[in-house]
C-alpha cells in the first residue's frame, strides 16, 4: 500500500496525516482549534502552522472557546508579541470573533459539532481518489458551509479553507485509496 505523499518527510506532517487528518472528531474544542489553525494557514503552508500548534494552544488556553471569546484587544496584542504564532492581526482577532460565533451556534444547535456534522448527515464522506491530484480544493458543500459561516460572522472561512477544515475534522476522508490510513483500509 502506498500512503498519501503530501506529508513528505516532515515528522509533524506525518504524525498529523497518520493520526488526525480525515479522522472524525466531534469535540467542539478540537473543532474550534482546527478552524483556527486552518484560518491561520491562509496564504501559508500547513507545515508552518503545525509547527506553531503548541504555541497556539498555550496562547489560546488550549482553544477554550469561552476563554477565547473574552480576549481583550490588549491580550490579543500580547499574544501577537509574546507567542510564536502567525503574526497577522486579522487572523489573531478572528480567534475571538470566531469563538463568539461558535458560542451562538452552541446556543442554537447544542454544539458546534452538531451544527457542522448535520451537513453530512453525521457520517463522513469517504472518497476514493487514485491520486492526490484528484482531490479538490473546494466542493459545493464547502461553498455552502462557507456561506453559512460567513452569515454567522465567522472570519477566514472561505470555501477552500472550509474544505481543508472538513478534512481536518474528518467530515471528509480524502486519503488516496491505497493509503493505509484511508477509512476503508483501517
UniProtKB/TrEMBL annotation:
Coiled coil: none annotated. InterPro entries: Adenine_glyco (IPR005019), DNA-3mA_glycosylase (IPR052891), DNA_glycosylase (IPR011257). The keyword ATP-binding does not apply. Keywords: Metal-binding, Zinc. GO terms for molecular function: DNA-3-methyladenine glycosylase activity; metal ion binding. GO terms for biological process: base-excision repair. Pfam families: Adenine_glyco. Zn(2+) binds at residues 4, 17, 175, 179. This is Methyladenine glycosylase. The lineage of its organism: Bacteria, Bacillati, Bacillota, Clostridia, Eubacteriales.
Amino acid at each position: 500500500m502506498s500512503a498519501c505523499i503530501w506529508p513528505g518527510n516532515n515528522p509533524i506532517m506525518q504524525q498529523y496525516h497518520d493520526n488526525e487528518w480525515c479522522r472524525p472528531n466531534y469535540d467542539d474544542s478540537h473543532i474550534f482549534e482546527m478552524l483556527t489553525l486552518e484560518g491561520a494557514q491562509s496564504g501559508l503552508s500547513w507545515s508552518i502552522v503545525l509547527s506553531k500548534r503548541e504555541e497556539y494552544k498555550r496562547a489560546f488556553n488550549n482553544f477554550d472557546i469561552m476563554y477565547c471569546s473574552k480576549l481583550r484587544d490588549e491580550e490579543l496584542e500580547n499574544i501577537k508579541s509574546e507567542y510564536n504564532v502567525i503574526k497577522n492581526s486579522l487572523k489573531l482577532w478572528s480567534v475571538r470573533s470566531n469563538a463568539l460565533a461558535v458560542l451562538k451556534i452552541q446556543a442554537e444547535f447544542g454544539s458546534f459539532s452538531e451544527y457542522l456534522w448535520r451537513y453530512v448527515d453525521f457520517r463522513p464522506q469517504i472518497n476514493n481518489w487514485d491520486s492526490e491530484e484528484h482531490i479538490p480544493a473546494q466542493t459545493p458543500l464547502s461553498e455552502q458551509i462557507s456561506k453559512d459561516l460567513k452569515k454567522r460572522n465567522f472570519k477566514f472561512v472561505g470555501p477552500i479553507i472550509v474544505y481543508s477544515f472538513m478534512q481536518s475534522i474528518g467530515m471528509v476522508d480524502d486519503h488516496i485509496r491505497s493509503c493505509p490510513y484511508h477509512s476503508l483500509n483501517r
